[in-house]
Amino acid sequence: MILAALAVFCLSASFHLWLEFQMETPLSSDGYYHIKIAQLYGTGECSIVGGDFPWARFSNYNHFRHDWQLLYHLLLIPFTWFGLTVGAKLSTVFFAALLLTTFYVLLKIHRVPWAWFFTVVVALASPSLIWRLHLARPTTLYMAVLLILAHLLATRRSWAVLATTLAAMLLYNVPHSLVAVAGVGFGVTTVIERRLVWKPFVAMLAGIALGIILHPGFWHWEGSFFGGQHATFELWRQIQGSVSTSALGNWLTIGGERVNMRLGRELLPLSGAGIRNEFILPLALILGSFLLYGLRRRKPLAPLAQVSLVLAGVYFYLFLGSMRFMEYWVPFAVLGCGIALRDTLAELPILGGDPEAVRARFHQPGPLDYVLEVGAGLCLLIQLASLLVRSSAGIADWTFWAPAILAAACLLLRALLTQLAEGLPQARGLDTFRIGLGIFVFLVVLGGLGAGMASNARTGFAMVTNTSDHSGHRYQAAMEWLVENSEAGDLVFHSDWDDFAPMFFFNHKNHYLVGFDPYFFYMYDPERYLLWKKICKGKLQPTEVHQAISLSFGARFVFATHETNWRDFVLQLGRSSYFEIAFRDEFCTVYRVH
């Protein structure tokens, strides 16, 4: 299996390497920050333990620095030796290949046939998943760790659960997903065993607690455990506030005025005509595997399949409200389906199953069984048809899923009737019709998966390679000019918080207003935050703009992009003699503040 895993890793890495180097720059804005902070850690210009983060001056993150992805940044340090741009790309390729290899190895450990096929399904499951695997973020590696945790919980290896959970917390120091995984694992294993399987659950909670406490930035006072008297949970509360704000449409009320915070698009639900392409393929795999699973009557789903499918359902629900959960639900769904199909296909005579054993596991269905099966099939067809024609985020409404819910109820009742027939020896026998129907459904799903993966691959490749609108390298020339013509620590006023990462990437000599989540700026000083929003929206007079930028913020330079969102801001600067154009190219302008 080691050689097979190495082959999967090399093939996956080759595929993602080819796709990644179709672009000249890293795909995501966040990727600029991650590789840059890793470089500063490696050179010692930014302390790993303790210290301020002066590059985001008007932000609580300045004084209460907490590196949420500390372990990820430490793992990135070797990649910085190849140069920041190339290093960011190589790290993206490495962790994407590592995720797919982890998925393949788990399938092989659980003896799932055609493990390579399911790995390909995950790799090409949806255009957005292909795109998000190239975002140079810790979520790809974090997903691999979550898959390992699901396996360890299902196999009840408590000490391994503790160590893996601790690593996951240092990789991404927010416990929400881990708490969900722990709860699902505890609930599923308890139902299967019909007793409290508490050791893995307690081990995971202990790993979460240790990950929080042992994180160098947890106490926010020189990163030291011994600074407990200075401990604060301010940043944690701000993260919760940011999530709450996004749920309310990103609107805040400051001084009686409603202000849109403009958080990242990934916090919003996916919408548009292509929404069905993002989940219909893995969803079809789930439905197809359950139709096949309906052939079996005695054994329940394996523990890992149950844990994986429940987690897939949880993350799918979250994905309907926020596209950022795409990379979470798909691997869990395909893993659960792979194990379910393993148990189903192993019992079919054409695949080597013992005919006598097969006959002992099937019963001759009656009229009611056929009615329920046909009813479930019709409901699933209706659901699939609805997915094909629906193109808005309204699918989050539970009533949209009524056909699937009804189909699940029919299959559940069908399973109960099968279980009741277990005690009737005269009712046992091999139902060739149901086996043939199952094989037919499987072949139809297989053909649909192949066509879907080909379509998704084309769309995903286009999404990844079309970087003209979000390449931070557009600002390289402006930042290099600032490095040559400014003093260390000079503040650069900028209109878009999302521009911080590429600006920081090319120029850490200067400081900026805000980086990361703008909610940190709001919590630092709500009045200044409101003033910043008014300036950027062009709602102040030129004299007021100059006084605010030079006195309230103390900026020596203003950085303005030429995007249409900030047209009023640029026009406002041009009408004032206090702002001198110092640098301009086709992408942005740098003004010197008099």
Describe the structure.
- With 594 residues, the protein is mainly α.
- The protein folds into three domains: 1-120, no CATH class; 275-465, no CATH class; 472-593, Rossmann fold (3-Layer(aba) Sandwich), CATH 3.40.50.
- The chain has 24 helices and seven strands.
- The protein has helices at residues 2-20, 29-43, 70-80, 84-109, 115-123, 127-132, 139-155, 158-171, 176-193, 198-214, 234-247, 280-293, 303-321, 326-345, 355-360, 367-389, 402-420, 432-465, 476-485, 500-506, 519-524, 526-536, 542-552, 567-574, and strands at 251-254, 257-260, 491-494, 511-512, 557-561, 579-584, 588-593.
- The strands form two sheets. It has a five-stranded mixed sheet. It has a two-stranded antiparallel sheet with strand order 1-2.
- α20 (500-506) links the parallel β3 (491-494) and β4 (511-512).
- The longest helix is centred in the C-terminal third of the chain and has 34 residues, at 432-465.
- The radius of gyration is 27 Å and the shape is elongated.
Could you write a compact summary of the structure shown?
This protein has 594 residues and is mostly helical.
Chain-wise SSE layout:
Blueprint: H1 2-20, H2 29-43, H3 70-80, H4 84-109, H5 115-123, H6 127-132, H7 139-155, H8 158-171, H9 176-193, H10 198-214, H11 234-247, E1 251-254, E2 257-260, H12 280-293, H13 303-321, H14 326-345, H15 355-360, H16 367-389, H17 402-420, H18 432-465, H19 476-485, E3 491-494, H20 500-506, E4 511-512, H21 519-524, H22 526-536, H23 542-552, E5 557-561, H24 567-574, E6 579-584, E7 588-593
